[in-house]
């Protein structure tokens, strides 16, 4: 009876240590991913002189002029509207075509149904970043 209790206590201790290590790892990863975003936001609120003087310090005076300049000179409003329109149209078309294709692949059985399913699954497994450079070269060759 005593051996079982000792074994159970050891397992509980091991599981607590593993949980602590997992949480430490997750906190570290969160800091690694969020630190550049927080720094970028902090730098966006500074003047150019303040950035070169102390890039990692908090802004002395909050400058919202950088956002106004980006909105007007960079035509950020037009770019945002264009991106929204393209995303909405793409999303609607993808959902319509994807639902029809998934129904056909899942329910209908024909001679090439297995090949078509493998083709779609392969396309979903390849990250878009793998084809960006060849795609860029192809489009740049068109002029």
Question: Would you summarize the structure shown here?
Answer:
The chain is mainly alpha-helical.
Q: Please, how many helices? A: 6
Task: Provide the gyration radius in Å.
Answer: 27 Å
Seen as an oligomer or otherwise, the chain set is single chain
Helical fraction equals over 70%
Based on DSSP secondary structure assignment, what is the total number of beta strands?
Answer: 0
Q: Estimate the mean pLDDT confidence.
A: 88
Shape: flat
Separation of the first and last Cα atoms: 80 Å
Give me the strand/helix succession.
Answer: HHHHHH
* Beta fraction: under 5%
SSE-based structural type: mainly alpha
Describe the structure.
With 143 residues, the protein is mainly alpha-helical. The chain is built from six helices and no strands. It is flat.
What keyword list fits this structure?
mainly alpha, 0% strand, flat
Task: Please describe the topology of this protein.
Elements: H1 2-44, H2 48-53, H3 65-73, H4 76-107, H5 113-125, H6 132-141
